[in-house]
C-alpha cells in the first residue's frame, strides 16, 4: 500500500484502526508477561527477573519494561483496566505511576494495605489525561506515596545524574537568580545555573572563612617545602606561617585555642580544601 495515494479521510480512519489494534496487542502482551512470570520462564534464558528478561530478550528499554510489568500486575488485581487500556482511556504511564504509588503506600502502611476499591477510585481519576497531569493528580490523592525520591547515579565521563524535587518557592528563587545574572542567565541550563551559583557561594564562603583580601589574590607563590612535606600531618609548621598567624588573635600566645584566619587559609591552600587524613 502506498500511503501517499490515500485520501485524508482514509488515512485518518486507517491510523485509528491501527492504534486500536496496537492497544489490543498491548493487553495480549501483558497477559503473556504475566504467564512468563508465573512459570518463571525468564530463568530458562539466564535472566534473574521478568524485568531482566524484558530488557535482554524482548528488547524493551528499562522504562518500557517497568511500565508494562507494573500495568500487568495491576491488571491482575483490577481486571477491568484491560478494557480501559484497549479503549485508550488509561495509558501505561498513568497505570505504572499508580501501581508504584500503591506499592509505596503498602510499604509505608503494612497494617493498612490499599483496598481494590481505593485503587479503582484512584484509577478512575487518571482516565483520559496525560502522564504529567496524572502525576499531579496522584500527588493530590496520595501525596506521601508518589513523591519521587532524591536519586544520584554515575553516568560516565566524570558526570553524575542527580534528580530531586524542588517546591514552588525554591523554583521562584532559582528564576530570580537567573534574572539577576542578566542576559547570560536567561540561556543557562539548570546544570549551568547551579554551577554558577556554586562559584558565587564558594567565593563568598571563602571570603567569610579566610578574609576577602586573601581570596581575591589572583596568584600565589608556591608553598614552601616545609608546607608541602607536611601533608601527612594536620599541623602546619609554625615557620611556614606569617608572624601575625603565629601570634594569634590580638597578640595572643601561640598556645591559644584560637585559630586565626591566616592559619585556616594556609592549611586550606596546603591541602586543597580536603582533610589531610581521609582527603
**Mean pLDDT rating:** 82
Order the strands across the largest sheet as they lie in space. Answer: 1-2
Question: Assembly type of the shown chains?
Answer: single chain
SSE-based structural type: mainly alpha
- β-strand number: 2
Alpha carbon gyration radius: 30 Å
Explain the layout of strands and helices:
Elements: H1 8-39, H2 50-56, H3 62-77, H4 81-87, H5 92-108, H6 116-124, H7 131-141, H8 143-146, E1 151-156, E2 159-163, H9 168-180, H10 183-186, H11 190-210, H12 212-215, H13 225-228, H14 243-247, H15 261-271
Antiparallel strand pairs: 1-2
Looking at this protein, list some descriptive labels.
279 residues, mainly alpha, 3 domains, two-stranded antiparallel ribbon, 2 strands, elongated
Question: What this model shows, in words?
Answer:
The protein is mostly helical and 279 residues long. It has 3 domains: 3-148, no CATH class; 166-214, no CATH class; 221-271, no CATH class. Helices cover 59% and strands 4% of the residues. It contains 15 helices and 2 strands. It has helices at 8-39, 50-56, 62-77, 81-87, 92-108, 116-124, 131-141, 143-146, 168-180, 183-186, 190-210, 212-215, 225-228, 243-247, 261-271, and strands at 151-156, 159-163. Strands 1-2 form a two-stranded antiparallel sheet. Helix 3 crosses helix 5. The chain is elongated, with a radius of gyration of 30 Å.
Amino acid at each position: 500500500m502506498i500511503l501517499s495515494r490515500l485520501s485524508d479521510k482514509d488515512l485518518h480512519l486507517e491510523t485509528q484502526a491501527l492504534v486500536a489494534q496496537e492497544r489490543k496487542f498491548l493487553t495480549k502482551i501483558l497477559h503473556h508477561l504475566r504467564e512468563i512470570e508465573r512459570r518463571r520462564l525468564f530463568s530458562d534464558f539466564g535472566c534473574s527477573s521478568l524485568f531482566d528478561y524484558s530488557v535482554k530478550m524482548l528488547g524493551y528499554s528499562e522504562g518500557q519494561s517497568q511500565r508494562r510489568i507494573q500495568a500487568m500486575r495491576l491488571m491482575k488485581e483490577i481486571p477491568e483496566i484491560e478494557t480501559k487500556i484497549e479503549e485508550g482511556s488509561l495509558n501505561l504511564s498513568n497505570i505504572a505511576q499508580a501501581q508504584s504509588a500503591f506499592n509505596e503506600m503498602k510499604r509505608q502502611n503494612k497494617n493498612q494495605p490499599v483496598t481494590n476499591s481505593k485503587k479503582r477510585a484512584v484509577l478512575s481519576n487518571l482516565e483520559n489525561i496525560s502522564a504529567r497531569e496524572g502525576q499531579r493528580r496522584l500527588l493530590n490523592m496520595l501525596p506521601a506515596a508518589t513523591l519521587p525520591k532524591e536519586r544520584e547515579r554515575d553516568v560516565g565521563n566524570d558526570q553524575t545524574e542527580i534528580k530531586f524535587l524542588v517546591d514552588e518557592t525554591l523554583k521562584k528563587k532559582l528564576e530570580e537568580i537567573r534574572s539577576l545574572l542578566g542576559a547570560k542567565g536567561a540561556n543557562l541550563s539548570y546544570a549551568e545555573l547551579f554551577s554558577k551559583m556554586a562559584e558565587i557561594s564558594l567565593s563568598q564562603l571563602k571570603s567569610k572563612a579566610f578574609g576577602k583580601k586573601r581570596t581575591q589574590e589572583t596568584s600565589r607563590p608556591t608553598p614552601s617545602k616545609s608546607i608541602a612535606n607536611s601533608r601527612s600531618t594536620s599541623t602546619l609548621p609554625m615557620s611556614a606561617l606569617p608572624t601575625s598567624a603565629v601570634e594569634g588573635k590580638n597578640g595572643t600566645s601561640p598556645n591559644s585555642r584560637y585559630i586565626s584566619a591566616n592559619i585556616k587559609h594556609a592549611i586550606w591552600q596546603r591541602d586543597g580544601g580536603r582533610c589531610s587524613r581521609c582527603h
